[in-house]
Design a protein that fits this description.
Layout: E1 3-7, E2 10-13, E3 18-25, E4 33-39, E5 46-52, E6 57-59, E7 67-72, E8 77-82, E9 91-98, E10 113-114, E11 118-123
Parallel strand pairs: 2-11
Antiparallel strand pairs: 1-3, 3-8, 4-5, 4-9, 5-6, 7-8, 9-10, 9-11
Length: 124
Amino acid sequence: QVQLVESGGGSVQSGGSLRLSCAVSGYRYSTYKMGWFRQAPGKEREGVAATINDGTTNYADSLKGRFTISQDKAKHSLYLQMDNLKPEDTAMYYCALGRDYSFPSLRSWRYDAWGQGTQVTVSS
């Protein structure tokens, strides 16, 4: 059974940084895609960044330059470095995993397993 556990969320002031982590267990394959998504109250879940097993990445256009996705295969972990955070980045952040590794999609329906989320709150 695949499990994803996020950590690293918290409260920061505008302009600050946070690094989210996602620990993966129970996944038996060497090919995958993984992504970070976020959902603010009253809004739809949106894709933030994604990557596949060869390191190819994909970012939401509005977040390029501020957010960086990375992975550590030895630690079975996914990361999201978030810099220059803004109040509009406030949301619950989720990591997700999918078997299809053809493209690092930002479409949530292309993912098969999800974590419980970690809250990020940015104050002005």
